[in-house]
Amino acid sequence: MLPHERSLVKRMEGKPFALVGMNSDSDRAKLKETMAKENITWPSFFDGGGTSGPIATKWNVHGWPTIYVIDHKGVIRYKNVREKAMDAAVDKLIAEMEAEKSSK
Questions:
Q1: Would residue 102 count as lying in a domain?
Q2: Is residue 93 included in any domain, yes or no?
Q3: Is 99 helix (H, G, I), strand (E, B) or coil?
Q4: What is the CATH number of the domain that holds 39?
Q5: Please, which contacts does 34-42 make with residues 24 or more away whose CB atoms are closer than 8 Å?
Q6: What is the residue range of 63's domain?
Q7: Which of 58, 69, 89, 94 has its CA 20 to 30 A from that of 15?
Q8: Are residues 25 and 31 in contact, defined by beta-carbon separation less than 8 angstroms?
Q9: DSSP designation for 15
Q10: Tens place of pLDDT for every residue, the chain, 104 residues?
Q11: What's the number of domains the chain is made of?
Q12: β-strand pairing of 44-46 with 68-70
């Protein structure tokens, strides 16, 4: 998923978009090395191993990856979309937000 996520972040540069990750690896130091090696430039929060961490618990995450696409109002609009479906979801929400903004 990382190559697609990198391309999506680059494509959305300058637009009202944010990719936020959560990681449950047990070794935080190794995670930081991996993030640098894989060029993960977006925020990625450490949740401390497994799906029992505080973030995973609060967001009802039971397995990896779990993907939520959230609109500009904070509403989860899509869940577990990947690659082209994720691109389409993001593009649709950006268009909706821009249409709403221009109609005001």
A1: no
A2: yes
A3: helix
A4: 3.40.30.10
A5: 38/2, 39/6, 40/2, 40/5, 40/6, 41/6, 41/9, 42/5, 42/9, 42/18
A6: 2-97
A7: 58
A8: yes
A9: S
A10: 999 999 999 999 999 999 999 998 888 898 899 999 999 999 999 998 788 999 999 999 999 899 999 999 999 999 999 999 999 999 999 999 999 999 87
A11: 1
A12: unpaired
